[in-house]
Design brief:
The chain is an alpha+beta fold. 46% of the residues lie in helices and 17% in strands. The protein has 6 helices and 4 strands.
Length: 165
């Protein structure tokens, strides 16, 4: 039996999430950009007293990881599961989960992927670079999924603004 696949009324639609993600394409993403993005996320989390873990990767290489007080090893496991979804689908883990819910099902029921390895819950967003496509991921875990996702989107938008994009 299905666990309520309906999208909550206040949740963004897949179309809204797709439009926002398209705005987050960067001109470049260097190791220094990973540091800047990571420190932006740490600052946002500290301001909000958010007990999150943060992970930034370029391809398979982890460029940044930080765990704020109150986060646990479970957050690292969630990061891995959400990151795999973003890598596989080339879209945020929140968008992937939303697409399944809008079809009247859930990711867990219909993706045919191992739920111990994949989680379509908000918090992992692909890093997309002009002319290169998806080159990595940035993931936050520790808050409700919509808040994890929103924190990543906010930091990516700030990074783009700092880079003059």
């Amino acid at each position: 039996m299905s666990t309520s696949p309906a999208t909550p009324p206040s949740a963004p639609t897949a179309a809204e999430l797709e439009a926002r993600e398209a705005e987050l394409t960067l001109r470049h993403f260097t190791h220094d950009d990973a540091w800047a993005l990571g420190t932006l996320l740490v600052e946002l989390a500290r301001e909000r007293r958010a007990p999150v873990a943060i992970d930034i990767r370029r391809g398979p290489q982890q460029l940044f990881h930080y765990a704020l007080p109150g986060s646990t090893a479970d957050n690292d496991a969630w990061i891995d599961r959400k990151r795999r979804v973003a890598e596989r689908y080339g879209a945020s883990s929140f968008l992937v989960g939303t697409r399944f819910r809008e079809k009247g099902t859930t990711f867990e029921e219909s993706s045919r992927l191992d739920p111990d390895l994949y989680a379509a819950h908000g918090g992992a967003v692909p890093i997309t670079v002009e002319g290169a496509g998806v080159i990595g991921t940035v993931t936050v875990s520790g808050l409700p999924q919509a808040e994890d996702h929103a924190m990543v989107v906010e930091a990516l938008a700030k990074l783009a603004a700092l880079s003059g994009e």
